[in-house]
Structures are given as C-alpha cells and as structure tokens.
Amino acid sequence: MVPLLLLSLLLLLPVPAQVLPLPNAGDVCIVGAGISGASTAFFLTNYTSTSAAPQLRVFERRPRVGGRLGTVTVAGDHFEAGGSIIHPRNLHARRFADLLGLAVETGADDDWLGIWDGTRFVFQTLRPPPPGSSWLRRKLHGLLNSLLLFNRYGLSLLKMDRFVQEMLQRFMLFYNGTDSRPVFVTVEEMLKWTGLYGLTRRTLGEELTDAGLNSRTISELVTVITRINYGQSVRISGLAGAVSLAGSETGLWAVKGGNWQLPAGLLKISNATLHLQEGIDSITDAGDYYVLKSNIGNEYNCTVTVVATPLDEVNITFSPPISIPPRKMQHTHTTFVRGFLNHEYFGVSSSSDIPELIGTMELPDIPFSSISVLKKYNEDDMTYKVFSRAKLEDGLLDQIFRRRKETIRINWAAYPHYEAPEAFAPIVLDGKQLYYVNTFESAASAMETGAVAAENVARLIISRRRGLEPHIQSFLGDGDEEEVRLDL
Ligand SMILES: *[C@@H]1O[C@H](CO)[C@@H](O)[C@H](O)[C@H]1NC(C)=O
Ligand SMILES: *[C@@H]1O[C@H](CO)[C@@H](O)[C@H](O)[C@H]1NC(C)=O
Ligand SMILES: *[C@@H]1O[C@H](CO)[C@@H](O)[C@H](O)[C@H]1NC(C)=O
Ligand SMILES: *[C@@H]1O[C@H](CO)[C@@H](O)[C@H](O)[C@H]1NC(C)=O
Ligand SMILES: *[C@@H]1O[C@H](CO)[C@@H](O)[C@H](O)[C@H]1NC(C)=O
C-alpha cells in the first residue's frame, strides 16, 4: 500500500522541462570533482537554459580531478588504478563519452581465469589461443570454455544470468524520459520505483540461493567476482552484488587513456570553476545560503551546496550538525607489479601454467583478492594488478613474485562495506539546500550509479528552487499517510 501511494504521489510531481530558468540562481557549490560531482555539474547546466545556468564552483581536495578514477604509469603505459570498467548498458557514461568525443576501447572477453583456493586452482578456463589465431579457432575456444563452465556450474550459470538481467532491466528505468520518471527525494524512493529496493535488504548469497544457484557456483564463481569488483564476499547486499556480477559480462569498455577524462570533460563543458587542492573543512547554514570554509582559508557563500564525495572518511564540520547512518568504506589496496609471478607459490610446474586472471575464494589464508596480467612485454616480463584487503608487504610480494622491477601501491577507500539491510543517508541532508549524491553508493557503487544519482540530484535542485515542491518534508514519510491521502 504505502509504496504504491508514494509512487502515485511522486508521479504527481511536476518534472522540470528543459529550458525553464533557475530563479535566484546563486552559486551552486559542489564538494568533490569525481564522477558524482562532475555529473551533477553537467546535468545542472544541461537541464537549465544557458542564460539561467547557475554559477558552479567545484572544490577538490586533491591536486587532480577524477576522484576514484585515475591511472598509473608503468613502463610508459597508463593503466586504470581505480574504477576501470563500464557496462555496455551504462547509458550515461556512454553518452558522456560521445558528447566529449572520447575514444573508447572494449576489453578482451576471453580471460584465462583460474580460481585459487590457497593451495590449488580448483577451476580454470582454457588458455587463450595465441594472438592472430583464426576466427574459427577463437570461436571454438569460446565454445569450449562455455562447455567447461557449464560442466562445473551447470544451470546455475543461466540462473545467475537471469538474476543479472532482471536487475539491469529494472536499472534501465533510471534512463526513462523525465516525463515518465519522477524526481526522487530519497534513495529508498529511487530504488522502490525501479523495484530494486528489496535487493538491498538481503545479502547476495541469500538472493542467489533463492534464485536457485548451487553452493559451488556461489562459493567459487560468484565469490571471485565480488572479490574482484567490491573486495568483499557474497555477504554484500544483493543489489551491489548484482551490479558486481554485471561487471563480469561481455562488452565492458573503458575510455582510451583513462576514465578520469569523463569527469574532467564534464566539468569543462559545464563551465564550472574548479578549485583544485582546496578541500572544504566546514559547511555552515547561514539562513539563505551556506558558508563553505576551505582548508586554505577561503570562504564562499553558496545558495546550494552539493556534497559529492563519501562523507565517511572526510572531516567536514556541518553546523548545525547533520546525522547520517554510519557506513564504513571498504579499502582496496591496488598493487601494480612489473615483474614475474612465482610458479612455485601457485604449485604449478611452470610459469606458463599460471592463469592470466587469478580469482580467489573467500578463505582466511589467501592474502589477495585477485591478480591479473595487464600487459605482457615478453614471456617473463609482465605488468600485473593485484587487489587485496590489506597492504601487501615486500616480504609477501617476494613470495608471490619471482622477480619485481617496479611496485606501485595505492590504498583506495574504494566503495562502501556492504551489509544488508542497507541504511541510506538522506539526499537532502538538512531539509533545505544541502544535497548528498554519494548516499546512493550504499545501494551500489560504480561510475554509472554516481551519474544516475547526480542526475536525480540535479533535477531535485532545479525543481525545488523553482518552488515546485516546497513541502519536501511531507514526502519523507513521517508516518502521516492519512493526511497525505486526504491531500490527494
Ligand atoms: C545536453 O546534453 C545533450 C546530450 O545529451 C547535448 O546534445 C547537449 O549539447 C547538452 N547541452 C549542454 C548545454 O551541455
Ligand atoms: C519507461 O519507459 C518505457 C519505454 O519508454 C515505458 O514503456 C515504460 O512504461 C516507462 N516506465 C515507467 C515506470 O514510466
Ligand atoms: C560555457 O562558456 C562558453 C564560452 O564562454 C559558452 O560558449 C558556452 O555556452 C558555455 N556553456 C554553458 C553550458 O554554459
Ligand atoms: C557572504 O555573504 C555575507 C552576507 O551577505 C557577506 O557579508 C560576506 O562578505 C559574503 N562572503 C563572501 C565570501 O562573499
Ligand atoms: C579526520 O579527523 C580525525 C580525528 O581528528 C583524524 O584521525 C583523521 O585522520 C581525519 N581524517 C581525514 C581524512 O583527514
């Protein structure tokens, strides 16, 4: 009853047309120059006429834009160090790349995967045919791999695929036109409208067991994928898990030269004033505007303030204080190694028997989540990317690798530590003009979810500043359904 009621209320909300002016357009200040902040800037300008476009300021603590998107350079090559893959059905990212004229590249779909249990590879796909092999040979290889997978995991593969496709189909509703898609005031409403909310209430393991997957598929294949994409086990919540599984499909792509160019380009075409190396230390409500104090002693008056960074590990002082549900970020240590793996560590007789993508099961003694080959220079000289939950010390790396020429370590506060049922911070943090994009990450964290959340925040800002929806509190569901019903 209640969700239906909410839905009908939301559908009644007038939705911004493309070119109405934004009244009293003062400064809109955005804290964070990652994909969430840059997408917010983009949609704010894209949904307002040029004459009414707000003055945008974007503050970024780091000396560069991109947030958790960035590249490292090993032996002259650039590799993605943070968010690295984009799903073919991520339409915002796709549109951004087209609009910005960025070239994209799709990854190879036939990784040589080995699943490691700490002592042996419990399952392996076939090693890929040599480069330059015929079309027929590559087709045959793909077919044999499918047979191998089917032989071990059976119908669970199809059930897993159905689970992911159902999620994607619901997620696609976020791209519906603005006339059929409401502006949402909470993440819960966004998820309920698409039918995805239930998935955030239970763990991925529970969801997949109900979907009929066998326990071997869950503890091997699914676990390998969640450990690679979110650094966590199948105890993550179902929606994050489904998004993670979608990240193992074919057709994944990335921006040539680095995904960070998406936020960089969006900020540029939004004409946002970018303040690099200027972090925001405090946000104070001054009545009609907010005073933002930066860590280099500047002050800014902002009519609207958008927090576009996870609040979990930054020290921003809000006055008056705000209260949001506690959330931990999952740290992923990304280690780039140029060198060569030690076949003895993996218990195989020769280095040519080590798969190019080593995924791992959820077992206490495995010190890394995955190891993948990024580039082969020759048979015993490669660049690898290793994910782990803790820093990999030199002593351990010296066991895993026979030779190391270069090692680069990055510690990312990468994504939330998911725990079903998820609790969501509000999008409107103070009931006024203080917004929070990254609350949506508690549902699932990805470039595209950042863009989807940002688009909704931009529409919410525009519609609320037009006074179309002044009584936002009544939609927050204070248990006053009776009164709401009367209003209808
Ligand atoms: C808004 O986005 C569309 C593509 O989605 C693009 O064609 C148009 O140029 C954009 N307008 C502005 C002002 O950025
Ligand atoms: C979303 O858009 C599709 C296709 O445009 C339409 O068929 C569908 O009814 C829309 N869904 C909602 C909930 O508005
Ligand atoms: C950005 O600035 C340029 C040059 O001043 C102008 O041509 C363009 O229309 C502006 N774009 C937006 C979205 O305001
Ligand atoms: C902010 O607004 C107040 C009140 O109008 C004004 O006194 C102050 O100088 C402004 N600060 C900045 C940095 O513009
Ligand atoms: C935030 O403040 C706490 C306590 O003052 C400190 O330990 C922590 O390192 C700070 N975090 C950041 C990201 O500055």
UniProtKB/TrEMBL annotation:
<dbReference type="GO" id="GO:0030327">
    <property type="term" value="P:prenylated protein catabolic process"/>
</dbReference>
<dbReference type="GO" id="GO:0030328">
    <property type="term" value="P:prenylcysteine catabolic process"/>
</dbReference>
<comment type="similarity">
    <text>Belongs to the prenylcysteine oxidase family.</text>
</comment>
<dbReference type="InterPro" id="IPR010795">
    <property type="entry name" value="Prenylcys_lyase"/>
</dbReference>
<keyword id="KW-0285">Flavoprotein</keyword>
<feature type="signal peptide">
    <location>
        <begin position="1"/>
        <end position="17"/>
    </location>
</feature>
<feature type="domain" description="Prenylcysteine lyase">
    <location>
        <begin position="143"/>
        <end position="464"/>
    </location>
</feature>
<keyword id="KW-0732">Signal</keyword>
<protein>
    <recommendedName>
        <fullName>Prenylcysteine lyase domain-containing protein</fullName>
    </recommendedName>
</protein>
<dbReference type="Pfam" id="PF13450">
    <property type="entry name" value="NAD_binding_8"/>
</dbReference>
<keyword id="KW-0560">Oxidoreductase</keyword>
<keyword id="KW-0274">FAD</keyword>
<dbReference type="InterPro" id="IPR017046">
    <property type="entry name" value="Prenylcysteine_Oxase1"/>
</dbReference>
<keyword id="KW-0325">Glycoprotein</keyword>
<dbReference type="GO" id="GO:0001735">
    <property type="term" value="F:prenylcysteine oxidase activity"/>
</dbReference>
<dbReference type="Pfam" id="PF07156">
    <property type="entry name" value="Prenylcys_lyase"/>
</dbReference>
<dbReference type="InterPro" id="IPR036188">
    <property type="entry name" value="FAD/NAD-bd_sf"/>
</dbReference>
